[in-house]
Amino acid sequence: QVQVRESGGGSVQAGGSLRLACAASGYIYSSCRLGWYRRAPGMQRILISTINTDGKTEYVDSVKGRFTISQDKDKNMLYLQMNDLKLEDTAVYYCAADYPMGGYCTDWGQGTQVTVSS
After folding, report:
1. Alpha-carbon dihedral sign for residues 61, 76, 19, 98
2. Which pLDDT tens digits describe the chain residue by residue (118 residues)?
3. Dihedral angle of Cα 81, 17, 113, 40, to the nearest 10 degrees
4. Residue 32 carries which DSSP code?
5. 81 φ, ψ to 5°?
6. H helical segments located in the chain
7. What is the three-class DSSP state of 55?
């Protein structure tokens, strides 16, 4: 199973920006969909953005227009540019890849903490 490692989190004021990065330890099958998840304090981990093999991106409404997912296939890297951060974006952010029919192509990493303050 491919390992991932997230980085780029930190503490920012509301309205600020961060860029998260996800490094994969090996090749991820081209059929896998890459995604960013987050788990807010006391909440379940949820999927917030995906990019599929065709480069099509999707976002949950709460981050649409503020977050941008991208990838560098040559470097096995996934990114999440987060702009206009809000207090409710405070969470641990994870990256992962999943198969079209279910299941994950990667293990879960430690995540990276994002804390937004007023």
Report:
1. positive
2. 889 999 999 999 999 999 999 999 888 878 889 999 999 999 999 999 999 888 999 999 999 999 999 999 888 899 999 999 999 999 999 999 998 888 999 999 999 999 999 9
3. -90
4. P
5. -85, 125
6. none
7. coil
